Amino acid sequence: MDGQAPPPPGPGELLVRTPADVPEPLAPGVVVVLPGGFRMSAGPAPAPREAVRPVPAPTVPEDASPADAERVRAPAHGIVRLLTEVLAGRRPPDGVTAVTTPAVRRYLTAARIVHPARPSRGRPGPGGRVGAPGCGSPGGSTARRTPRVHVGLPRPDVAEVCATVTVAGRVRALALRLDRAPDGRWLATAVRLV
Question: Can you give the pTM of this predicted structure?
Fold first, then answer.
């Protein structure tokens, strides 16, 4: 710095050459001035840290056997089929109140794909009505793929389900959580179409 000496330290300031020259302990409120004008302030002493407590191990729920997962597969497959029909616009969201929560029905209402009625152009499809949803398609094939359903049971009363479904001619992933109701039915409590 141009050969000029640094300004003399003010009251409550300590001028040092290196950080190693700072005395320990440093009184609160003292400002340490290093060469180049770098200033460090000694604040109040830090509060002592609490001892680190060990995190309790998670409680392991009752084990769910592969046989339990197989018993859930049939209701899960039926629920996936119903939800796919709602998402494709072939069933109203209120048509699945027995197997869904209100939050899931709101999601289905927002995510569903409704096709406008197609004009009659030819012969009826397998359903018998020309232009009705699911009755004929431009390609001629109306076969719907059976969804592939995978079930996981983190707990005996909770199922995590993922399925590969076809909605509006596109293959999509459908993820849902099923919870067992007190009466034994499985309810979809969370659904996402990806």
Answer: 0.54
